[in-house]
Amino acid sequence: MPNPAFSTVLRVALPSPLRRLFDYLPGREVPSQGWQPGLRVRVPFGRREVVGVVIECASHSDLPLAKLRPISAVLDETPLPPDWLWLCRFTARYYQHSLGDTLHQAMPALMRQGHPLVGRTHTLWQLIDSTCIDKTSPKQPDPLSRAPRQAALREMLQQHPHGLAGRAIYAQGFTREQLRALEEKGLVASREVTLAAADPAVGELLATPTLPLNREQAVALAALHERRDDFHPCLLEGVTGSGKTEVYLQLIEAIARQGRQSLVLVPEIGLTPQTLARFRQRFCVPVVALHSGLTDHERLDAWEAAASGRALIIIGTRSALFTPMANPGAIIVDEEHDGSYKQHDGLRYHARDLAVARAHHHRIPLVLGSATPSLESLQQALSGHYQHLRLTQRASRFPPAKLELVDLRHRPRQGGLTPIAIEAIKTTLGAGHQVLVFINRRGFAPTLACHACGWLAECHQCDARMTLHRHPPLLACHHCDSRRPLPDACPDCGSGDLRALGAGTERTEETLQGLFPKVTVHRIDRDSTRRRDSFEQVLKEIQRGAPCLLVGTQMLAKGHHLPHVTLVVVVNADGGLYAADFRALEHSAQLLEQVAGRAGRAAHPGRVLVQTLHSDDPHLRLLAEQGYAPLARQLLEERRAAKLPPFCFMALLRIESPKEAAALALAQQAAQALRDWLADRPVRCLGPVPAPMERRQNRYHLHVMLAADKRSQLHPAANWLSQWLQANPEARKVRWSLDIDPQSL
Ligand code: ADP
Ligand code: ZN
Ligand code: ZN
């Protein structure tokens, strides 16, 4: 009889694309509380050692025990948080992704590397008691009388009797040297505290008082309060500037008063420093922000603070959805329609959709907030699955401005701007206000053309044109990032008559600077704001309120409160009107409404000019005349009639290869095999078809689409396809991915 204690097999999830677990034997080391699922272990894997998570403790393996290798080390004393493990397993299953890879992506980098979780300490600096010098005593001259910065540091530490972390000290403008000097003089000492032992936030909660709510806000908040202890999904549909954030803040306050945590997802913290600042201003308790600027240690600290329940307010972008919480109280997804919630490579999850699953699992309220809800969420609200809360009034005096369509046909343009737009800009600047010119193209011009023969600057690697840039001068492909110097003459006919075609941000900036030489023009796009804080600097300057011109891409459209902007000009609204992707119209309507929402948010009413070649397009007219809400409802009816999401569920198989024939062969095989398997099952299989941009970076892209009326019908098919691909050696010769609920084609 083999001893069961020795025959225990550990089934471990490893960071590998293979969608399976790997069996190991326990090593010599035994965890203090015995083997349990959720412990991180270090194991040999091929010739490497990797960090994995024990998922099951089994009594046997399909492999002979003699073939199994023992694990090398146990990394945790207690299992990782069970709710977090649940979320990772749910995510892996739903998105047909490897569990090990999902776990790895959901962990901070240091945990992935095997860094221990418990017992992490940090250093606190504290005054030594006797240094509270009685300055009036004449016998004891102050040792710091000639070191004013050190004296100032001492004064600051006096206000923090429990000590301050080095990071907090340096953030106040003091240096390491000043701290060391005080230490050498015997005035301060450091002490190590474990993070787990640190106190939960206690005491005062609010740093600044709440605003008295208007009627609609109060109704929304009351509805959220009423069902605080149950899964309660709500769509908070509120026009731009209607005070959604204030509703979030007051909900979070109530949740925090119960000692429970709120998780707030925002599209991009770097782009909306104001949102974070508002949270920090409101609350005394720390607001843990997860963003790309954190160091690995800060990220791990944040994870632990959330996992232990110490952090009451957690705010972050897409990946923050995977933050564990000991006492979850609410999840809020701000700007829920935003495309950045969907990850577009690897694990292609949608943070908003996972937020729904997570709130359901925790039985807590979920708030999806937007001025321009996604059709998915809107449909859930209209059909009664989500509570529909609406804010129709702006907190400030003026309602959102109507869009005025400006016909581009037969009108001269300067830097993309019609005379009507230029006149309006002049008037607005004359009145001492600011103007936002929105143009969804960075660079100088969308492309370079030969006027003699019609040649266009095309990318050699993609089915796309190259963008003309002036600073520095070059041609760049925005799809594959390849660059070329500007040609002196047309490569086809030799003519020197090469001209910039259309306008990008650089060109519009140049034109406006020429037209209004005395006014500052701020250009805001990925090229102008590469430096980490430059965007924040510009935003600050804009907020000071001097008349100026802002020229920018959608970076400017998202959530910013620009109180002095009273005119918004959209250079060209036509991008999404006739695109191949069925979501393009929804997305461009959202963007237009968000950009328009920047105008007239404070003391003066706003005006929005939208230039278009299709001023009689019925969708655009509906948006202009009645706003996003009626358009969204009409688009829903069109989707219903066409049986498109949200009235069906989709999965997209993407296949790519440098060899067109290889991609096509696999795509055809996969589609055929799937159709054979589907037989009479209620799932439709479309394709293979070439991707909208078939050649990108010299790789050929093909799609096979699955669609079904119900998620429960789609998933077995997606799962079968995933298994088929994994088992097929041909599939290893190309790159493939399966995208569940794809957001773009
Ligand atoms: P949203 O998130 O819907 O765009 P915000 O919450 O940012 O709107 O509110 C827009 C502006 O109105 C902010 O300056 C905010 O301080 C102010 N505000 C919001 N609610 C109120 C209120 N109840 N009373 C007064 N001002 C408010
Ligand atoms: Zn030519
Ligand atoms: Zn390219």
UniProtKB/TrEMBL annotation:
<keyword id="KW-0413">Isomerase</keyword>
<feature type="binding site">
    <location>
        <position position="462"/>
    </location>
    <ligand>
        <name>Zn(2+) 2</name>
    </ligand>
</feature>
<feature type="domain" description="Helicase ATP-binding">
    <location>
        <begin position="225"/>
        <end position="391"/>
    </location>
</feature>
<keyword id="KW-0347">Helicase</keyword>
<dbReference type="Pfam" id="PF17764">
    <property type="entry name" value="PriA_3primeBD"/>
</dbReference>
<keyword id="KW-0639">Primosome</keyword>
<comment type="subunit">
    <text>Component of the replication restart primosome.</text>
</comment>
<comment type="similarity">
    <text>Belongs to the helicase family. PriA subfamily.</text>
</comment>
<dbReference type="GO" id="GO:0005524">
    <property type="term" value="F:ATP binding"/>
</dbReference>
<dbReference type="GO" id="GO:0006302">
    <property type="term" value="P:double-strand break repair"/>
</dbReference>
<feature type="binding site">
    <location>
        <position position="480"/>
    </location>
    <ligand>
        <name>Zn(2+) 2</name>
    </ligand>
</feature>
<dbReference type="Pfam" id="PF00270">
    <property type="entry name" value="DEAD"/>
</dbReference>
<dbReference type="InterPro" id="IPR011545">
    <property type="entry name" value="DEAD/DEAH_box_helicase_dom"/>
</dbReference>
<dbReference type="Pfam" id="PF00271">
    <property type="entry name" value="Helicase_C"/>
</dbReference>
<dbReference type="Pfam" id="PF18319">
    <property type="entry name" value="Zn_ribbon_PriA"/>
</dbReference>
<feature type="binding site">
    <location>
        <position position="490"/>
    </location>
    <ligand>
        <name>Zn(2+) 1</name>
    </ligand>
</feature>
<dbReference type="Pfam" id="PF18074">
    <property type="entry name" value="PriA_C"/>
</dbReference>
<dbReference type="GO" id="GO:1990077">
    <property type="term" value="C:primosome complex"/>
</dbReference>
<feature type="binding site">
    <location>
        <position position="493"/>
    </location>
    <ligand>
        <name>Zn(2+) 1</name>
    </ligand>
</feature>
<comment type="function">
    <text>Initiates the restart of stalled replication forks, which reloads the replicative helicase on sites other than the origin of replication. Recognizes and binds to abandoned replication forks and remodels them to uncover a helicase loading site. Promotes assembly of the primosome at these replication forks.</text>
</comment>
<dbReference type="GO" id="GO:0008270">
    <property type="term" value="F:zinc ion binding"/>
</dbReference>
<feature type="binding site">
    <location>
        <position position="453"/>
    </location>
    <ligand>
        <name>Zn(2+) 1</name>
    </ligand>
</feature>
<feature type="binding site">
    <location>
        <position position="477"/>
    </location>
    <ligand>
        <name>Zn(2+) 2</name>
    </ligand>
</feature>
<dbReference type="GO" id="GO:0006269">
    <property type="term" value="P:DNA replication, synthesis of primer"/>
</dbReference>
<dbReference type="GO" id="GO:0043138">
    <property type="term" value="F:3'-5' DNA helicase activity"/>
</dbReference>
<keyword id="KW-0378">Hydrolase</keyword>
<dbReference type="GO" id="GO:0006310">
    <property type="term" value="P:DNA recombination"/>
</dbReference>
<dbReference type="InterPro" id="IPR040498">
    <property type="entry name" value="PriA_CRR"/>
</dbReference>
<dbReference type="GO" id="GO:0003677">
    <property type="term" value="F:DNA binding"/>
</dbReference>
<dbReference type="InterPro" id="IPR042115">
    <property type="entry name" value="PriA_3primeBD_sf"/>
</dbReference>
<keyword id="KW-0479">Metal-binding</keyword>
<dbReference type="InterPro" id="IPR027417">
    <property type="entry name" value="P-loop_NTPase"/>
</dbReference>
<dbReference type="InterPro" id="IPR041236">
    <property type="entry name" value="PriA_C"/>
</dbReference>
<feature type="binding site">
    <location>
        <position position="450"/>
    </location>
    <ligand>
        <name>Zn(2+) 1</name>
    </ligand>
</feature>
<keyword id="KW-0235">DNA replication</keyword>
<feature type="binding site">
    <location>
        <position position="459"/>
    </location>
    <ligand>
        <name>Zn(2+) 2</name>
    </ligand>
</feature>
<keyword id="KW-0067">ATP-binding</keyword>
<dbReference type="GO" id="GO:0016887">
    <property type="term" value="F:ATP hydrolysis activity"/>
</dbReference>
<dbReference type="GO" id="GO:0006270">
    <property type="term" value="P:DNA replication initiation"/>
</dbReference>
<keyword id="KW-0238">DNA-binding</keyword>
<dbReference type="InterPro" id="IPR014001">
    <property type="entry name" value="Helicase_ATP-bd"/>
</dbReference>
<keyword id="KW-0862">Zinc</keyword>
